[in-house]
Design goal:
four-stranded antiparallel β-sheet; 51% helix; 15 helices; four-stranded parallel β-sheet; 314 residues; 10 strands; alpha/beta
Length: 314
Amino acid sequence: MGKAFIFPGQGCQFVGMGKLLAEQFPAARMVFEEVDDALEQKLSKIMFEGPSKELALTTNAQPALMAVSIAVIRIMEAQGLDLARELSYIAGHSLGEYSALCAAGMFSLADTARLLRTRGDAMQQAVPVGQGAMAAIIGLNDDDVSDICANASSSGICQIANDNGGGQFVISGNKVAIEYAIILATERGAKRAIMLPVSAPFHSVLMEPAAEVMRMALARITYNNPIVPIIANVSVKPEQDSIRIVDLLVKQVTARVRWYETVKWFAANGIISLYEIGVGRVLTGLIRRIDKNLEGITVGTAKEIEVTLKAFGI
């Protein structure tokens, strides 16, 4: 039966993440040192010691979350895990796609760190602070949320940024339009409709300047076809051609993260176990809400790594 590795996105970072792995495993220490060198910054110090406000900045959170995911991968590889042999697919939630592609050998670790630093900076700078916003809407269906976005668009850009499944949507756009959408969602009977504490309207057309920055950044590096196909956020199909994947990564900046459809794709295509690699258990929680027949497993601690390796017969 099929297994896949999935990689988390922004929001699950916390001060202290990766510290125990670095203390326990030389392979993890090497990852954090390489990321520090690539960024010419002691990002690992911010990860291990904070302050949390600095870690939460998009420019730091994105490469930091990737670093922990890759540290977990390198630890397992050092103990004999062969991704190409053991996995059917990989996937990632937003920035998690970069972690997945680094794990699968499409990008080097140093290039991935620099790409995510560029991505974080570009997304932050695409819209002046205070003009963009994101909100979570819980308890409505896709048609309801699409209709709300269409109506709120009379006040500015308003679109679905994430469909996370289980009636959980994130919308993104101009602040005034998002505020109007919250009112409409509440009137429509949403269980919750709240602003999110983010600094930019990610995964909306307002991110077009950031998409162009990423197009240029990706054009400057060398890359390989990933050794494991990725189920891409934009296409929700297996992708293994690096040129097409790069095009999808550019589109991903402004497009919806189709996570609900991604999990459903796994369920329909013989995958029974999804291993969440790195920080937190957000994706594992979403899996349970989307399809109870799928097994979601977190792999972020020494004990979880040990259990996972045993499951792979290592």
